[in-house]
Amino acid sequence: MVKKVIKKKSLPDYFxxxxxxxxxxxxxxxxxxxxxxxxxxxxxxxxNYLQNQIIRLAIGLACGLVLYKLPLKTFKKFAxxxxxxxxxxxxxxFAPILGVxxxxxxxxxxxxxxxxxQPSEFLKIAFIxxxxxxxxxxxxxxxxxxxxxxxxxxLAIAIVVFAILIIQHDLSTLCILMIVSLAMYFISSTPxxxxxxxxxxxxxxxxxxxxxxPYRIRRWLVFLNxxxxxxxxxxxxRQSMMAVGSGKLWGIxxxxxxxxxxxxxxxxxxxxxxxxxxxxxxxxxFLGATLFITLIVLFFWRVLKIxxxxxxxxxxxxxxxxxxxxxxxxxxxxxxxxGLLPMGGVPLPFFSYGGSHxxxxxxxxxxxxxxxxxxxx
Length: 377
Fold this sequence. Notes:
Blueprint: H1 14-43, H2 48-69, H3 72-91, E1 99-102, E2 105-110, E3 116-117, H4 119-135, H5 146-167, H6 171-187, H7 192-212, H8 214-224, H9 235-246, H10 276-310, H11 314-338, H12 356-372
Antiparallel strand pairs: 1-2, 2-3
Helix pairs in contact: 1-2, 1-10, 2-12, 3-4, 4-5, 4-6, 4-11, 4-12, 5-6, 6-7, 6-11, 9-10, 10-11, 11-12
């Protein structure tokens, strides 16, 4: 009698899924509460911003589900095509009619109906996946050949991506991807002097690009001395720190103090996007802000655990790269709000209002959960 072999179904990492679900739902709730007076003022409808966020989140979840269902070999096979497509989209921001310039940055594409797409958000994922596919080969390359076959192609890929971000005046995304790519290169099977050389060259390049733009220099001066320009370039930092401080231990509760006449938060620039952490601090206080940071740290810890089990393979490097991206971007945003880092103008993952970034983050979650099925939880 022949016994029927039942193949055990691979399951995702549920702990990671729960953390991401809590962050996403909390972020949706926060956007809904914060946006009520703003939406009423701008559109005569208190639910406009929340409706838009729900639609974008639904699109992101649908894309994430597709990526969750794809076979693992498909990612590696189509990594070059996805990367090239993301590069082309990133160049379309300079196309007449399509390209949109906001606050000095040429970073958006108008696809109609007032819906703007920021290709650099999708470039983050494509770059990480393509880089993981490339660096995953390093184990099979001898040390003598790694400079020619790994380091030089890596630098060529990075220079193309970074050049596009520079001409878009998107130094914040450039910094994020530099940290991500450097971390991925470091944990792959490559010599340490490669990583140190890349880090040194990157630091010099960032310094030069910062000095070329006066507004970037002013950001650093305000970071070093917030009171030097409190009503102009230091205004957002001043208002965000006041908002966080006024939340004290428990926060102010209902509505998060987002009345339009509120002297601290009503005047806070970009309360739904860049400055949303300041609203968390005001609405939920020190405990709420600490809970958010704890969830982000737990998220990163779980991602690291999955990446460690997968090793320096294509899957492991992809998981690690996505984790570093979301972790670093979170603390880049938070550090800017608290005066610990220069203001960067990046969205807070899972929380900030917006289309491209929330869709990209849900896509990233689909990849993480898909790759986590490869290990025994």
